[in-house]
Design a protein that fits this description.
- It is built from 7 helices and 2 strands; from the N terminus they run ββααααααα.
- The chain has about 180 residues and is mainly alpha-helical.
- The protein has 3 domains: about 70 residues, Multidrug-efflux Transporter Regulator, Chain: A, Domain 2 (Orthogonal Bundle); about 40 residues; about 40 residues, no CATH class.
- It has a two-stranded antiparallel ribbon with strand order 1-2.
- The chain starts with a strand and ends in a 22-residue tail after the last helix.
Length: about 180
């Protein structure tokens, strides 16, 4: 049952008033997101008060936190909708699978981050071994990384801008 309160708002009999804006703010999403979740069937439409405002309870907050958490994990909205009607055992199994997928993505992202950092430091370890060996030979012959870029974009590896003398190189030239 709803009743008016002195400030013109409407309260439930237990005194709680949670509007769509408050719900969104508590959970960290926009009101538009809450409405999209209503339209997609992820979050049931709540009852409206005498003024026509949606009123949400604690269960709605918990449901929205679950939906947001799954969405942030990359779970498609259609799958989230299916999970809402899943049994407890099915939900736990799905959560384990999602966790495994996240673990794999994190591992892949860390590997990519490591390759980027090595590349930024000038180490060529992200390249296949034969390419790294070839580039090291080029360096021994006096070609610089800037020269490699110039050579690749301009098509000339004999430009005087791309070579520097490196008498200290310990590798011998391969026979051509």
């Amino acid at each position: 049952m709803v009743r008016p309160c002195p400030w013109g708002k409407v309260k439930w009999d237990d005194g709680s008033v949670i509007t769509i804006g408050q719900l969104a703010g508590y959970v960290g999403v926009s009101t538009k997101t809450v409405r999209v979740y209503h339209d997609k069937g992820l979050l049931p439409e709540p009852d409206r008060d005498a003024s026509g405002y949606r009123r949400y309870g604690a269960t709605d907050v918990i449901d929205l936190i679950k939906i947001r958490t799954l969405a942030e994990a990359g779970v498609p909205l259609a799958r989230i909708r299916d999970l809402r009607s899943a049994t407890d055992a099915q939900l736990l199994q799905a959560l384990r699978e999602i966790d495994d997928e996240l673990t794999a993505r994190i591992r892949d992202l860390r590997a990519t981050q490591g390759r980027l950092r090595r590349l930024a430091a000038g180490r060529l370890t992200p390249l296949p071994a034969e390419v790294s060996t070839y580039l090291e030979r080029l360096a021994c012959w006096g070609f610089t990384p800037v020269g490699w870029i110039y050579s690749a974009t301009c098509g000339s590896s004999s430009s005087p801008l791309t070579r520097t003398k490196r008498p200290h190189c310990s590798r011998s030239r391969p026979r051509s």
